[in-house]
Amino acid sequence: MLIGYARTSTLDQTAGLEAQQRDLQAVGCERVFVEQVSSVDVTAREQLAQALDYVRDGDVLVVTKLDRLARSVAHLMEIVATLTKKGAALRVLSMGIDTSTATGKLMLTVLGGVAEFERSIMLERQREGIAKAKDAGKYKGRKPTAMAKADQVRRLKAEGMGGSDIAKTLGISRASVYRALEEA
Fold first, then answer.
1. For residues 65 and 93, is the Cβ–Cβ distance under 8 A?
2. Which of 26, 136, 137, 150 registers the highest number of CB atoms within 10 A of its CB?
3. For the segment 124-138, what is each residue's pLDDT rounded down to a tens digit?
4. Rounded CA gap, 173 and 169, in Å?
5. Which pTM does this prediction carry?
């Protein structure tokens, strides 16, 4: 049985998610697990955990691209080990890789290493760019959204609303609520 897994990092990437689902169904996936969550927080990927739990002996977990599944070679190898232990395989459509073969396993490891290397180089360039922009006085960082709502926080508190309710109402964290109240 072919089992699909589709993921995007943010909720506004609906077109990418729909394309993944379409491609997975086109290759014959009978069940597709879908989620919109960052791959950085591995613990939050409930649908991936369910997909890995769902696979059985002889099944193949199918993803459209490797970066939809794992961010590091270590995590990728952990997923492959889980699938192998269950008698299942992994297929990556964009790379034509299938871990049911020895060559597929080798190529997955090599290409996973290249993908991880590319990501680390990209992050290094990003850090260098930010440092250069800071030195030039052009980088100010993210605008503090919670502190922009400090007046609203104080007003709601004066009206008798509790910290948790203020946070929910304004869409900020409780810590930001109390920080705004302390600075008042």
1. yes
2. 150
3. 999 999 999 889 888
4. 10
5. 0.62
Q: Is 99 helix (H, G, I), strand (E, B) or coil?
A: coil
The helix or strand, by DSSP H or E, that contains position 7, with its residue range, turns out to be: strand 2-8
Q: Which two tokens stand for residue 179?
A: 């920080």
Q: Which domains does the chain have, with CATH numbers?
A: 2-118 (3.40.50.1390), 147-182 (1.10.10)
Q: Which residue in 9, 94, 173, 176 is the catalytic one?
A: 9
Verify whether residue 120 is a known catalytic residue. no
d(CA 86, CA 33): 18
**The one-letter amino acid at 107:** M
Nearest by Cα to 116 from 54, 71, 86: 71
Nearest Cα neighbor of 108 from 122, 126, 119, 96 is 96
**And the tokens for 52?**
């890995």
**Residue 109, Cβ density class (10 Å: 0-12 exposed, 13-18 middle, ≥19 buried):** middle
| Whether residue 42 has pLDDT greater than 60 | no
The Cα–Cα gap between 173 and 163 comes to 9
